[in-house]
Amino acid sequence: MSSRAKIRLFVEHPLGAGQTVPLSREQAHYLFGVMRLGVGAEVALFNGTDGEWTAEVAEAGKRGGSLACRVLAAPQMSPPDLWLIFAPIKKARTDFIVEKAAEMGAARIMPVQTDFTNSERIRQDRLQAHAVEAAEQCGGTYVPPVDDLQKLDRLLADWPEDRQLIFCDESLVGARAALDAAPAGDKWAILIGPEGGFSDAERARLTAHPATTAISLGPRILRADTAAVAALTLFQSTRGDW
Ligand code: SAH
Fold it and tell me: Which atom of ligand 1 is nearest to the CA of 219?
């Protein structure tokens, strides 16, 4: 028998033996209205820092309820210190990128506005909710924060000295420019452009930046959402936590 409960829920509350965790209206609706759980049922909880806990329904109501934390079911597992920086594209594809980045173990998700960015606005709260859902379903105990949209220029101007920037450059399609060329390090970022790619000015600036390693993602031009997953796969399998 598995000691891990099936329903996994992210909560913004400390977790530990004996903790009582109050539920929001939405969480109560989901557990008791949709999933039909009753008092005594088991739920897995995680909060991004304390690991996964098995908890029991203590009170079940229409608009609220509470869970009682019992035992630690899995230790906290945080991903490598990897930022995914990407230019938002159409809504459904942006949602996809955020969901996949959370599943693939990005530590932080950062939408940026570039010269050819398709969308001027994002719904940070909605994107964050997608990251939470992805963590709930993939068994992760960590939820990457999703930042507000910021300008790529600004981000580069304030770039931290100790962080490597993996620049996925579509102009290198088919070229020999692999991640192996990047120096060793423990703080990373992957940068993916929008449908229109990067402007010449951006490419020049990025290439000249001391933190940058420009890489190719193979012989075909990938859509931005595919490129994000491909780059995360490449990173995690060579420098990351696989
Ligand atoms: N319109 C552009 C392609 C943009 S693809 C053109 O035709 O050139 C969207 C983003 O995905 C790019 O900005 C880049 O970051 C990434 N990307 C896609 N294919 C890539 C490849 N083969 N190598 C490196 N990056 C790639």
Answer: 22
